[in-house]
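User: I've been going back and forth on whether these two constructs are worth ordering. Before I decide, could you fold them both?

Assistant: Sure. I'll take them in the order you sent them. The first construct and its structure tokens:
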Amino acid sequence: MPCVSSIPTLPTIRLISASLQVVSIAGVNVRIGGGRWRVEGEIGPKLTGAARNHNAGIARTPHGMLLATDSVRVVFAVSCAGAGCNGRAEWSYDVWAIQGTLSAAR
């Protein structure tokens, strides 16, 4: 069961993240507790070329299931930051999507 979380940047925690992690955990562990989250991938400046990668969500069916059992499609926003912006960062927001293969359960 994958989800997306922001990676805080230290020492300053930003309001808008530079990177996101796609993580997963066995569904049974969500229902009964326990288990460990596994990092499936990272969406960040190295991948997108954007200073900010944020506001992510996972594409699902109308019933809340993943579109496929062996892959995940993540939709997220990218934007510029600081001196890299020509004007206000809010006007640079763009919506992207990426699809990745999920690793086998361990």
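The second construct, handled the same way:
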Amino acid sequence: MSTATQLRFKNLEPTEAQKELLLSALGDVKEHGPDEVVVKARLKRRGKSFVANARVHSGKSFFKAQVQGRSVKELAAHLRHNLIQQLEKWKNTRRRKREVLSRQERRRRRLRVLNENFTES
């Protein structure tokens, strides 16, 4: 299992509490992701607000989010919610595809059995 989290800052020197909030949010995102995941985030100050860009990479899958907020706590919550929502949607889509494929495979097996029984008679 290979996972990584990168956090960068621009135009501000974050406090330890701000770093912990963001790392916690990115850790939650990582927990919802697949095994091999890389999470990268960049926080910058724009005037009185903060802007965060985040990317989640896992194999061929790629998710990204950009959020803005007045506080790092608000920003971290929006970032966590946005990315987890994208990951859950991706998981559900994959699950449905697998279910469709398994139904198709079961149907092929039944047809094969019927065909074998029919040709033996």
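Notes on the second construct follow. The domain at 3-95 is CATH 3.30.160.100 (Double Stranded RNA Binding Domain). The mean pLDDT is 85.
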